[in-house]
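JOB MANIFEST
job_type = single_chain_structure
chain_count = 1
residues = 402
[input]
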Amino acid sequence: MVGADLTTTLPSGEVVGFAHLDYAASAPSIRAASDAVTAILPYAGSVHRGTGLRAQTSTLEYERARDLVAEFVGARPGDEVIFTRNTTDALNLLARTLPEGTTTIVFETEHHANLLPWPNQLRLPVPATPDDAVEAVRAALRTVKGSVLVAVTAASNVTGEIWPVRRIADAAHAAGARVVVDAAQLAPHAPISLADLGADYLAFSGHKLYAPFGTGVLAGRADWLDAAPPYLAGGGASATVGETPGDVTWTTGPARHEAGTPNLIGAVALAAACAALLRTDRTALHHREQELLNWLRSGLLPLPGLLEVNTFGPDHPRVGITSLAFATHDPAAVANTLSTNHGIGVRAGQFCAHPLTRRLTGTTHTAACGFSESLLRISFGLGTPDDHIHRLLTALSTLTHP
C-alpha cells in the first residue's frame, strides 16, 4: 500500500505509524496503481486527439483501461463502460439518461449519491430484514407503470451490511424494471459482476478501490445511454457540428458521455487496481478481512457506553465497516481524540446517509444517546495490519474506562 509507512507525532512527542481506519471514505492506493501512473506520465497526451507518440500511446492506454475495467465488472455484450469522476458522478449521469417519465424506486438507506439524483422517486423505508427489502420492492413495483429503475446499494457505507441485490434484481426484472447497483463499498471487498448481481447498471469509485482520486465508472446497458443527450456537451461527444445552433450529431458509445479531454491518469490507475485485484486470491483476502472484522467486533462488545448499529441484525454478512453509537460521548470528539492522541484515523458523522443514520440512532436501543444523529465509523480493507485494530481497541477501552 502507498503510504503504509506514514507516521504522525503524538502530543507526547512519540512518533507512531498512522493507522488509517477510514477506508469507506477513501482507501489508500496500492503500489500497482502508483506504478501505472509513473509509467504513463512520460507519454501522457490527449486521448482520441492527435497522431503523435503521446496521443497515440494515451489513446491506446485509455481504451486498454476501459477493457480492463469491463473485465473487472464482467461486462456483457452490449454493455458500455463510461469513465466518470466518481460514483456520485456516475449515478447522476445515469439519472440524466432515464427515459422521460421513468419511476425510480430507492430505499432511504442509500448514500446520498444513490438517493438524491433520481427523478419521480418512490422512496421506501428502512427494511428490517433482507426478505422485507425484497418484498418492499415487489410491492412498490405493483403500484407503478411504465419505465422503472430500482436503485440499491450492494453494501452499506454505514453498517457494511451486504444487501440482497440479486434477489431484488430478480424481482425487478420479473416486473419489467431495471436495476442500478451502487457498488462503491462492495467492489473493494468482493468480486463484482453485472451478471452475478443481476444489475443492468453498476457504479463505483476508484478512490475506494485502492486507486487515486478523480475516477469512477458507470457500466451497463447501452440503449438508454445512447438514446439520451450527452451528459456533457462538448468535444468528443460530438461527431459533427453544423453552422446553426442545435445542428449537432452526437456520437454513440462511451464517448457520448465523456466530453472534453478525459482523465487518462485516473483511468490507467483505476485499471491497474482492477487488474491487480483480478490477479489476487479474493477468497483469501475476504477471509483475512473477516478475521479482522470479527476481532474488532468482539473487542468492541465489552466496552461500556457504545453500541454497534445495524439494519439487518448483528449476524448479517458485512464488509469491513462498522459504525458505533455512543451513550455519553460525542463521536466527533472521540474521532478527534483517536487522531490526536493515538494516531488513528476514523470517521464521525452521518456519512452522507442522513435518513439511515437518523433511523439507526433513533431506534429504541440507541435513543438514549446524547448525540443521536452522529456515529463513529471504523472501516478497513486491503493492507490493514493487526496492529491497527489492536491500537484502536486499546484506545477505545481507555476512552470508555476513564
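[summary]
The mean pLDDT is 95.
The chain is about 35% helix and 20% strand.
exit_status = 0
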